[in-house]
Amino acid sequence: MLIGAELAAWLDDGDRQRAGRAAVDAFVDRWKIHPLTMDLRRELKAMAVPTAASVLAAAERMMQRTGDLNELFADLIPAALADPFFRPPLVAVGSDIADGFVLYDDPSVTVSVAVTSADALAAKKSGARGASSIHFTGVSVAFRLIKSGGVTISLWEAPEAGADFVGERRGKCRLVGRRRYEDGEWILLDGRSQSFVIEHVESDMVCLQAAVKVGGAPLTLEYDSRTLDYVGASSADESASRVQIMVSLLRLMGRRDAAPVIADLLDIPSFSARWHIMRELLALDADAALPHLRRFAAEDPHPEVRAAAARTLDMFFAHTVKDAASCHA
Amino acid sequence: MTIDIANIPELDTVIGMHGSVKQTEVGGPVCMGVLIGIALLIKGEDIRVNE
Questions:
Q1: What is the pTM assigned to this prediction?
Q2: Long-range contacts for A253-259 (Cβ within 8 Å, ≥24 apart)?
Q3: Could you list the residue range(s) of the whole structural domain that residue A315 is in?
Q4: Would you list the domain boundaries of chain B?
Q5: Interface pTM (ipTM) of the complex?
Q6: Contact map slice: B 17-46 vs A, CB within 8 A
Q7: Domain for residue A3, yes or no?
Q8: By CA distance, what is B13's nearest residue in A?
């Protein structure tokens, strides 16, 4: 591997590396007890039942404290200028058009700061290949546009996805507004039914954002950006998706001994995960699955699960009904 | 009885796994990192800086 002279000097200088780590540790110690994070943590802990609205309101109060946020970056910039290998002790996040850092994270909310590149956005829009979507993330979000970059944003709405979600009934999303935003403005979104599209930006945008992790929708939704038709949904429940993968793995491994554990997972709230687990259990141990399948056919809250369970009973277990009937006769 | 999973009916409404998308986002909340929280949850405690 070829490395530059500056990196080679840094790699050979243990004292310099230790000094860099010490600067990072010192920053972390200051940041942990900084009023900005302490106050938000205290406020969230004091909530008996955190809701999306109450968590978002607390995060908004943090995002309004411009002086404290400036202090944070004033603390980081000299260290970064002094040492090209200084690595800010904040989680870096980004996408194809934005780069940023997480400022605060706990089980209820993530607050971050990010720069959205006007050039990257222009390249994304002009170089687009294939269909694209308007995404409804299912979570409540607040954006504070520190520097708006003269952005023009369109706002969109679609019906919220509930536990009885059926894809074919979704229809289209609809435009509810479009306007230019100035420095300091806020965008507040209930991602269960609202979304936005960046139509145009004149220069890079800098924004704070809070994404709330409680009270969200069970699904994220996509609508085609040209036809506005519904095109698909994904689970917003990470644990349910992980369970699906693990249950599939157990079935592929032929672990019939896991059938009781898998049966215990059949009451998972996600209807698609419930049916996924049922299919795996049927393939792994049909006898163990049968009583649960009958229950699904009779009383599952989702109409497609009830219908699929009834079809499955008819396809594979019709003889058991006949056998039982002939025994009674 | 053995049942081939390929023969078991599927739901008409297809739901993708967590984090999956059907099409690229046109430039909205996902592009601006709204799914950050989800990514953090996947990676776990070790990358939380404020605990």
A1: 0.83
A2: A254/A284, A255/A284, A256/A284, A256/A285, A258/A284, A259/A284, A259/A285, A259/A288, A259/A289
A3: 238-328
A4: 22-51
A5: 0.75
A6: 17-42
A7: no
A8: A167
